[in-house]
Amino acid sequence: MATDSIAVPLPRTESRSVVLDWLCTVDHKKIGIMYIVYALIFLVIMGCEAILMRIQLARPESTFLSAEAFNRLFTMHGTTGVFFVAMPILLGFGNYFVPLMIGARDMAFPRLNAFSFWMTAFGGIFLYASFFTGGSLLHGGGAPAVGWFAYAPLTSQAFSPGHGTDFWTLSLLVAGVGSIGAAVNFVATVSCMRCPGMTLGKMPLFAWMNLVTGGLILVTISPLTAAQLMLILDRFLGSHFFDPAAGGQPILWMHFFWIFGHPEVYVLIIPSFAFISEILPVFSRKAIFGYPAMVAATTGIGFVSLGVWAHHMFTVGMPSYGNAFFVLTTMVVAVPTGIKIFNWLATLWGGKIRFATPMLFCLGFLFQFLIGGLTGIMLATAPFDWHLNNSYFVVAHFHYIIVGGILFAIFAAFYYWFPKMTGRMLSEKLGKWHFWIMVIGFHLTFDFMHVPGLLGMPRRIYTYQADRGWGVWNMISSIGVIFQAAAILIFVYNMVHSYFRGALAGNDPWDAWTLEWATSSPPPEYNFSTVPAVRSRRPLWDIKHPEDPDWKYE
Amino acid sequence: MSATPVPVAVEDAESRPLSRGRVGMWCLIIAESAIFLIFIAAYIFYMGKSLDGPTPAQILTVPAVTTVCLLSSSFTMHWATSALRQGKLGLFRLFWFVTLALGAIFLIGTGREWHRFIYQENFTIHTNLFGTTFYSLVGLHASHVAVGLIALSIVMVLALFEKVKQEHSERCEILGMYWHFVDAVWVVVFTVVYGLGR
């Protein structure tokens, strides 16, 4: 492979500054980087929010934070994490690599792409402006305090008279428009812009999974948009959607919110599956096992996930057959997920494993996502959920998936694709420190968090009594945060240092097989000087091994 | 720029049967349908549940004229885009204008209906659950009609300045898809509100 392939930036006209270039860009690669950097900044912010909360919860009856401050913190932490960290970062990687992997010049609608990013960006900034309104910053200013799911009637004017709820509603409405725009782009790009020879059955799983995610976003974010419009009408025009005094029912909000909220977590996990499906095979030196089953399973997950939402509502008093239906659908959605896990394991089996940092994070993902999924099955059994709902067991479960699964997959993606995006390798040594300290911290915090949940500690409480027996477990969880913070700092340092001083990467540092590794690192603005044509799922394997190409076997 | 030599494509990337504009518009239609479905679900959920205030049977009269206008506008839209595809620019401008006019009649009719409700019957979004769900659902639809009319007006102005040519027919058809969607939503809303609800 050629190693002297650092792209020379095209000359810019004198009058255009760098800032203006980035502000006005419609290039999917720049937009992808902006999404990712934006999300990383909010990752650090939401981590700080978590640190504050864990300090408060480390000891019983702590007075480190006031109740109002704590309520605002968990609301902002959750809202930020879902909408301004996880979604942007996953959409950012998707934006950068989907066109490259399918041999396209850009996304289908470049201007819509830019518009979607800026809408999302503005949503986050608008949400955080709320800290600087209302009361004293020490108590969280005017930030929303209604939980990330903003249940009615807490969100009515009567119970949330300030503007925190409105910041929550409007910022997410705006960001939601951005998400839908991005989804339209992903679906249109993957559907219409694949290079010649790349049938749907030959495109990388990364492209498939972003296609499914795009479709899912279209039908997932819209219910939230609808519910938020209803909330705005209730709060400002005196409508009665969720107003019990006029016969309205707060449970309607719960249904609409979770009709959004559950598929939303699949919107977050499916792109993470995409990362693993691309990275794991390369470091096992084997093609992914069971490509058709992976496609079918992902599509199946997308569809079934639309029918499980009320497993968040087992304790609200639905009739038994209602609960039973959602128990069954939730169990069913675990089946295609399990198929994927088996396929990843089968990919590893018989492969020549290379334990580079991207692979370490993939293996961490596999182990942790599995456990998180198993606690999910536990929660899916309604009778058991009657004990566990709204407890720290649920918090431990979803953080297992989001941190242990999604965040680990994101780290894997960084270590794998940072060389392509910047032309330089991240430090393996620092990467391994990052990985192991993160593993220690993650498990300290979230393994032991299951215990207070089982012992009955509810969510969203700002403190607890000393005689409950929860103190020691909370202390252990809080100590784990120190390790996680250290790991993230190592990661940030690694990125900054390697950007300037990292080893030059070349086109294809990992000896991978998808089209993005056929371009220089970073790729030129136009991606490919000639439109590529492919004959198999691993076009670069075919080029590097012309005596044994994949298309003879597919 | 040094890069791995990938086999060169011979096929022209533009010769795809599925155009990105159409896929994009279908995606938008799917997303908007989901929003409407939630409002329709709320409407049906709250049917008959108002504690007091006017009921649908007491207040609603079937908006036959405006409905006929809106549904006819789908036909005129189709004729307009067909004419454009065949290069008959004058016919296109005529049918496009009629579509615009029919849509405007629909909106004006809705406005008059609401004026009567608010000022004569004292029936607002605040009155009861029926008011909440009626105004939000019909209003959401009307706002989509309004956005459609803005888009149609822009094309109308461009057409009057003779900027819209045969090669733009694909784009006008895609806009037509949006318009047909708005009509289809009205069929559902009309059935639920003025049919089932009464």
Q: Which homologous superfamily in CATH is the superfamily of chain A? A: Cytochrome c oxidase-like, subunit I domain
Let me know the largest β-sheet of chain A: none
Rg of chain B, Cα atoms, Å: 21 Å
State the assembly state of the protein chains.
heterodimer
Regarding CATH, which class of chain A? Mainly Alpha
What does this structure look like?
The complex is a heterodimer of chains A (554) and B (198). Chain A has 554 residues and is mostly helical. Chain A has a single domain (29-552), classed as Cytochrome c oxidase-like, subunit I domain (Cytochrome C Oxidase, Chain A). Helices cover 64% and strands 0% of the residues of chain A. Chain A has 16 helices and no strands. In chain A, helix 6 (205-237) runs antiparallel to helix 7. The longest helix of chain A is centred in the first third of the chain and has 35 residues, at 67-101. Chain A is globular, with a radius of gyration of 23 Å. The two termini of chain A are 26 Å apart. Chain B is an all-alpha fold. Chain B has one domain (57-196): Four Helix Bundle (Hemerythrin (Met), subunit A) (Up-down Bundle), CATH 1.20.120.80. Chain B is built from 6 helices and no strands. The longest helix of chain B has 32 residues, at 89-120. Classes of the chains: A mainly alpha (554), B mainly alpha (198). The interface between A and B is large, with 66 and 45 residues.
